[in-house]
Amino acid sequence: MAVLALFHHAGGSAAVFRRLIRLLPDHIRPVAIELPGRGRRWREPTLHTADEAVRDLTELLVREAGAETDLSIFGHSMGAYLGLGVAAALERRGGPRCRVLFASANLAPRLASPLFAEDEVPASDEEVLRRAARYGAMDAGSLRDPHIAARAVSLLRADFDICDSFVRTRSRTVTESRVVVCRGRQDAFGDEHTAPWQWSSVQPLTTLTFPGGHLYLESAGAEPLAAKIESVITEPARSRT
Predict the structure, then answer these.
(1) pTM above 0.85, yes or no
(2) In this entry, which stretches build a coiled coil (predicted)?
(3) Do residues 123 and 96 lie in contact, with contact meaning Cβ atoms separated by under 8 Å?
(4) 3 state SS for the chain
């Protein structure tokens, strides 16, 4: 059975994958892994660097999937960068190896710039939420509750730290995995933003588009996404030349 590891977006949790998981066929086992500070791991302290996050996700995935697994990774937004980091880390460990990295809803890491400068004073809560809202990833209604808003800001700060850390230290990571870019047609990222994902893999790049915006996998894009994931995972492995 093929295993599909699922890594969530900044400020998010494994809940973003609920609809996709329901649509996947029985021969693909989804493994949704959350960073500390949310979901089942809400009591754990949040992480703030890419090194910490990649190490955490790699160790959890190895325990969950085993060493001899037919493995692919689907990383959404921040999760795309962490998926790249985990795929490369697994190659260094010697297994399990990621066959396909689905890099969803994020521009190529070598094009990315940090969201916040290292020497800036900490951003206000309003600025943190404003940055997140650019991608349509925040539920404005839920943020009216001050407790929910405070929790959202705390997670976003931690995850934005991870993203900025990745861009500064790991943007040139290269994997042997095949990279398949997935994006919503109404998202902010077009071909010019995603085509350079090719630099992150030794294999040819594939790009797939789906109806919807940044969170297309929660809306109209979920069904065609599940079908494409099945199609790609069941294809014979490609040559690395």
Answers:
(1) yes
(2) none
(3) no
(4) CEEEEEECCCCCCHHHHHHHHHHCCCCEEEEEECCCCCHHHCCCCCCCCHHHHHHHHHHHHHHHHCCCCEEEEEEECHHHHHHHHHHHHHHHHCCCCEEEEEEECCCCHHHCCCCCCCCCCCCCHHHHHHHHHCCCCCCCCHHHCHHHHHHHHHHHHHHHHHHHHHHHHCCCCCECCEEEEEEECCCCCCHHHHHHHHHHECCCCEEEEECCCCCHHHCCCHHHHHHHHHHHHHCCCCCCC
Tens of pLDDT, residue by residue, the chain (241 residues): 899 999 999 999 999 999 999 999 999 999 999 999 999 999 999 999 999 999 999 999 999 887 778 999 999 999 999 999 999 999 999 879 999 999 999 999 999 999 888 776 778 888 888 888 877 656 555 567 777 788 889 999 999 999 999 999 999 999 999 999 999 999 999 999 999 999 999 999 999 999 999 999 999 999 999 999 999 999 876 655 4
Which amino acid is located at 22 in the chain?
R
Q: Using the structure block, give the residue that is written with the tokens 């839920």.
A: 142
Distances in Å between the alpha carbon of 180 and those of 21, 101, 175?
18, 6, 12
Q: Note whether 11 and 156 are within 8 A (CB).
A: yes
* Rounded Cα distance, 5 and 58, in Å: 10
